[in-house]
Amino acid sequence: MRRAVVITGVGLVEAPTPEALAADVAGLSETHLRHADRVGLLAVAAARRALADARLLPAPEDLGLSFGVGFGTYDVNARHQRRILEEGIAHASPAEFTLTLPNMTAAFVSIAFGIRGETTTFADGTLAGATAFGAALDRIRAGSGPILVGGAESLSPDVVAALEATGLRSPGAWPEFGAGLILEAADRAAQRGARPRAVVAGYGAGADLQGAIGAAARDAGAPAPDARDPDETPSAYRLATHLANAGAQTLAFAPACFGGARAIILRAP
Amino acid sequence: MLPPRVGEPIAITGCGAVSAFGVGVEALWTGLIEGRSAVERVTRFDASPCYTQLAAEVPAGVVPAGTLEGDRATTYACLAAREALRDAGLGQLLVGSDLALGTTLGGMGWGETYARQGWAGGPAAAARLSRLHYHAPAQAVAAQVGIQGEVTTVSAACASSLNAIAHGAVRLAARRCDVAVVGGADALCAFVYGGFASLLALARDAARPFDRRRNGLVLGEGAGILVLERVEDARARGARIRAILGGCGTAGDAHHLTGPHREGEGLRLAMVRALTAAAVAPGDVGHVNAHGTATPFNDRMEYVALARLGGEAWARRVPVSSTKPATGHALGAAGALETIACVRALETGLLPPTLNFGEPDPECPVDSIPGRARQVPELRAALNLAAGFGGQNAAILLRRADGGRA
Question: What is the pTM assigned to this prediction?
Fold first, then answer.
């Protein structure tokens, strides 16, 4: 009998003012968060809300991290590259270079909350949050403790302009956000009296939408409820916002910018 | 807390590699076993303003002339993937196969070409955006070899390809796919070289893992790809099982952005998880392929982590190689290349040496197999380690296949 998995916490921050964001991360490892970029801070703020929502603060020892990164590091990558070109290869900034690594976002969350569980970051563009979600689902079914699935995005004007030029940006499709979801085994959630927000029925990945939804339906052992039309919105953001809607739903992701597709089927608790 | 149960044993049925020793697993392995080093002076860009100019580059000619820097990692990954699939006897993959590729930069090894073009919009912008992305090499490999399932990119700093391998193992155990093509790729570029130089992490004279005089790492590049299948499936189709992937573990240090936890807590946890999943005790591990970057902090941390895992006597005794002085630190490809080295070690009973070792360090008193390969025909289990920026740690436990039987 396969272990049922539920979502016990959700955290979402959207385009906070610098003051609001600072307040959201106040008291957490200031020494290290001082070096964080906006994406890192958004992820930490969302993680705090998700963990609080799930009543998992302080973080349990076996809490894992499964993160997705989209375009978040493009800006700092560009700055680092331009500095090397304009000032020379011997004049890179170590603090700036460190931020170009996609896994730094998860690292800030790990440091902020002392998280030492199984940790990984996916970087398959706007699919990454969904991929991270699916990986967490499989690990928990196989016996893992709870996992914080996270993602954050903050696009610089350069990247926004490029996305607009490609026609891939539509208003609201590229929100600035930090998102966190706590996935957990249903029996463990029940044991500690946690209230599930949703049941995770299935996850699927494929080369196209049909393949992904089919795989998710097979995983769920039931036909997929009608999928909302996929758009270019980062998957972590869509997951966090749609969890507010109770009831069965299929969230499908098939960005034009990247190949491949993902589908996640949720049920009401 | 320990992982909840023993993991499903996974077969490694194919390997492919591109390294500073050239194209192919044999080029890599022969270079390692002969105790050669592929480290020279950087030729691809001008590193003369830096305090060092050492690097291990994939030989000229492997990548077609005129290939843009951002596409080098893709080329390496495709070459390695094709070798791995041929090796596994899987000519054409259909539905039922996944790809997980580790990388730190992916398509972002920009080079001057992309940076000078900048973010100009227009019709070329869409192609440029996705081509520049971390995910670009994975997409290209999937298209080339016909992977239809989950195609993803894993970015976990220097542990990227071990994390990708771990993800493939999770997908196989969950019966999400029948074949997982996993590994990593990264291309050397000024972007990365300048970054590591700014951290003063590059060696001035040579990479000397575990040596008292060690002063940093030497960068490399390349790609390593492995084909993974459930053992029962590999046997059913009569595939040659090269080694068994017994268990994988990852962990965060929750300590510092670039320096490791001084007691190696994250690495210790990753090793505990891998060994528990594999049902192997530290004393059964006959060889460790260390992360072994030869930075002052890393090598000391690894010894402490090993000693905390299996006791000081074991940590001093178990043969520990770092192959990075030979191949350079290939970043996203490092874990996969080193896993392939472990596969060859298990197949041959030969352990690759650690080069440039001269003066032992009482702070990390490992048996580093200095200078010359060593025969250990009774080798049955090997542990491969990675520790990356952001405190990302990973460990993989491999077992000998024993003539195709797990």
Answer: 0.96
Distance from C-alpha of B136 to C-alpha of A8, rounded to nearest angstrom: 34
Give the three-class secondary structure for B8. coil
For tokens 């967490």, name the residue.
A136
Question: Quick one: DSSP state of residue B92?
Answer: S
Which residues are registered as beta bridge partners of B151? B99
Q: Which of B117, B135, B178, B261 to mutate to test the interface with A (most CBs of A within 10 A)?
A: B135
Over residues A11-49, the pLDDT tens digits come to: 999 999 999 999 999 999 888 889 899 999 999 999 999
The answer, for A29 touching chain B at a CB cutoff of 8 Å, is no
CA distance B384 to B247: 11
Instruction: Report the distance separating Cα B126 and Cα A180, nearest Å.
Output: 29
Catalytic status, residue B291: yes
**Chain A residues within an 8 Å CB radius of B389:** 98, 101, 103-104, 107
Which residues of chain B make contact with A142, given a CB cutoff of 8 A?
4-5, 7, 170, 173-174
Q: Which of residues 44-63 of A touch B (CB under 8 A)?
A: 61-62
**Cα–Cα distance for residue pair A107/B391, rounded to 1 Å:** 7
Contact B207, A106 (CB under 8 A): no
Residue A80 CB partners (closer than 8 Å, separation 6+): A92, A93, A96, A97, A100, B191, B194, B195
Does the predicted interface ipTM exceed a cut of 0.90? yes
Are the C-beta atoms of residues B241 and B404 closer than 8 Å to each other? yes
d(CA A121, CA A241): 21
C-alpha to C-alpha distance for B114 and A162, rounded to whole angstroms? 13
Dist. CA A24–CA A42, nearest whole Å: 9
B10, B112, B153, B182: best to mutate for the A interface, most A CBs within 10 A: B153
Catalytic residue among B135, B261, B287, B329: B329
Query: What interhelical angle do B72-88 and B136-145 show, nearest 10?
Result: 40
Tell me the three-class secondary structure of B224-272, residue by residue.
EEEEEEEHHHHHHCCCCCCEEEEEEEEEECCCCCCCCCCCCHHHHHHHH
Q: Which of B158, B177, B248, B342 is catalytic?
A: B158
With CB atoms and an 8 Å threshold, state whether B116 touches A85: yes
State yes or no: is B158 an active-site residue.
Answer: yes
**Nearest chain A Cα to B172, which residue?**
A138
Please tell me which residue of chain B has the smallest CA distance to A163.
B126
Does the N-terminal peptide bond of residue A18 adopt cis geometry, omega within 30 degrees of 0?
Answer: no
The answer to whether B257 contacts A127, with C-beta atoms less than 8 Å apart, is no
Two structure tokens written together for B316? 């001093």
E strand or H helix at A135: helix A128-141
Written as tens digits, the pLDDT of chain A (269 aa) is 789 999 999 999 999 999 999 999 999 988 888 989 999 999 999 999 999 999 999 999 999 999 999 888 877 887 888 899 889 999 999 999 999 999 999 999 999 999 999 999 999 988 999 999 999 999 999 999 999 999 999 887 777 776 676 666 655 567 899 999 999 999 999 999 999 999 999 999 999 999 999 999 999 999 998 887 777 778 888 888 887 666 788 999 888 777 899 999 999 98
Q: What interhelical angle do A38-53 and A104-113 show, nearest 10?
A: 50
Max Cα–Cα distance, chain A, nearest Å: 61
* DSSP one-letter code for B58: P
Nearest to B369 by CA among B33, B56, B40: B33
